[in-house]
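WARN retry 2 of 3 for item q-0093 after timeout on previous attempt; input resubmitted unchanged.
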Amino acid sequence: MSVPADQAREEAQSILAEPRFRETELPRPLHGVLEWLGDRLEPIADAVERVLPGGDNVAWLLLAALALTAALLFGLRLTRARSPGARRYDGGGDVDAPPDAASLEREATEAERAGDLERALRLRFRAGVLRLAERQELENPASATSGALTRRLRSERFAEAALAFDEVVYGRRAPTEDDVRLAREGWQAVLAR
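OK item q-0093 returned
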């Protein structure tokens, strides 16, 4: 059974007029801002296009390379400034010597006496890690974690001290004098071996 051509055309047009065959309008929340920015950057792009052959592609490539270089330099500087081995400057312009384990332990004892228990914990752990590095038991003390040290040292007393350290420093639990005692005894047990 055949359908006349006019009728088939009308059916096809009515089917294609349904919403499922129409283009969907998507939201464009940044359209105006990006258009404004493009208008402001157009004179710069035109100037670059006059100077450099290759047009917009070269201009965008150079802009991307500059942005990537700036981000890389900023990241390297930030990483170096925050690394554990970074040298710190005092007010007089002299470079402070890197801390040694003995001075860190003295500072930890002073912090404990002053009631700054979290600082005492942090300093004691840092001193212990430096002592292990001095003995050549750690290759990179800056990357030593309490979990890795617990597995490596295999000391129950140190494991308790490391757990308390993690709970205080990373779990933001208020430190107690017992935590400081555990740290002191845990490191003494490890370093006495």
